[in-house]
Design goal:
There is one protein chain. This protein is α+β, with helices and mostly antiparallel strands. It is 12% helix and 20% strand. It contains three helices and four strands. A hairpin with a 2-residue loop joins β2 and β3. The longest helix has 5 residues. It is elongated.
């Protein structure tokens, strides 16, 4: 879909990427290659902000339930709500968690901007 400046842009507003590879054939300029998508299809990882319901002590694990790569885990807490712990190393940037979050607290960030461990 056309994004800013008229360039193609992936939108995960309604659904995530199934990593099927159809975008490779659909890309007329040939900017997407099989080699580029073999390891990590998107150079983005999830970021959760302070609006996350679980971070605000409301039980919610919808993002974990919809993540096909088991990126988001919840650690139980005695006397409190389990908190999300996303693992950026496992995230492919597929975006399946984005449209599911009832608080819209998940976004994708450029993987190159995330500090290394």
């Amino acid at each position: 879909m056309p994004g800013s400046g008229g360039f193609p842009e992936a939108s995960f507003e309604h659904n995530g990427c199934d990593e099927c590879g159809k975008c490779i054939g659909a890309c007329e300029p040939g900017a997407i290659s099989q080699q580029a998508t073999q390891q990590v299809p998107w150079m983005s990882v999830i970021h959760m902000d302070e609006n996350c319901l679980a971070m605000r002590e409301v039980e919610c694990r919808i993002c974990q339930e919809h993540c096909p790569h088991q990126v988001i885990r919840f650690t139980p807490r005695i006397g409190g709500v389990a908190k999300p712990e996303p693992n950026a190393d496992l995230c492919t940037g597929c975006g399946h968690c984005l449209p599911r979050c009832p608080a819209a607290s998940i976004s994708l960030q450029d993987a190159h901007l995330i500090p290394t461990r």
